[in-house]
Write a structure and sequence with these properties.
about 230 residues; alpha/beta; Rossmann fold; globular
């Protein structure tokens, strides 16, 4: 089987993306980042997901994006809460982390070259993406073009790297349906931008609200909330 690098945050989208890569027959190498995010609890979820889906290797890389700040996820800024769909669909929110996906994909590109892998999977979404510029199809296409100019493997061995964004045109409900069909256990995931000390979701940040809307539209219960109720 061919090897693929899969960016794995520990959230709903990245877990589904990993399951898709596995279903497509790739030997998956999961890549996560401890980048100074306030919701670092997601890395525990990433570890559980990687184990549950049986990846070949799970690497967690330490980088310090708090050094630059500029985001409610990497600086002492307030995470927006209780926004409606119209508010979430307008502008780029303060939870955008400057150049995050560019940085993450660059690390994935380096590992792919070392492994001789031609494929990188990322769980970006252009519908429920909260306005992030590095979740758009144009960005993915541009990075893929750049990647095929940037490595010795591409220049000397004519390696053709492909960036897969299988969720790019799916609604959150469709993503959930796809994941459930592939056996993803969403109780293992973490989506909240501002969880409490126990790791429980706040239920009011953009990510929590998008997740809740997705499960409602998919007409199924979020198992993460069930787990919370059971342990209350």
């Amino acid at each position: 089987m061919s090897a693929a690098i899969v960016l794995l945050s520990g959230g709903l989208d990245s877990a589904t993306t990993l399951a898709i890569a596995q279903a497509d027959g790739f030997t998956s190498y999961a890549l996560s980042f401890r980048y100074g995010q306030r919701h670092a609890i997601e890395l525990e979820s990433a570890t559980r997901i990687a184990a549950a889906l049986g990846v070949a290797e799970h690497a967690v890389i330490d980088i310090d994006l708090r050094r630059f700040g500029g985001s409610a996820l990497t600086a002492d800024l307030t995470v927006p809460k209780g926004r409606n769909a119209a508010e979430m669909g307008h502008g780029i929110p303060i939870t955008y982390v400057p150049a995050r996906n560019t940085v993450f994909l660059s690390f994935a590109l380096a590992w792919a070259e070392v492994l001789g892998a031609n494929d990188i999977f990322i769980g970006v979404n252009a519908l429920d993406y909260s306005g992030y510029p590095d979740c758009r199809p144009e960005f993915i296409a541009a990075f893929e073009q750049m990647a095929n100019l940037a490595t010795a493997a591409a220049v000397e061995r004519h390696q053709r790297l492909r960036i897969h964004a299988p969720l790019i045109a799916l609604s959150k409900a469709d993503i959930i349906r796809r994941g459930l069909a592939l056996g993803v256990d969403y109780a293992l995931t973490s989506s909240c931008y501002d969880p409490d000390a126990r790791g429980w979701p706040c239920g009011q940040c953009d990510s929590c609200l998008l997740r809740a809307r997705g499960f409602a539209e998919a007409r199924c219960l979020d198992p993460l909330l069930t787990c919370r109720e059971d342990s209350a």
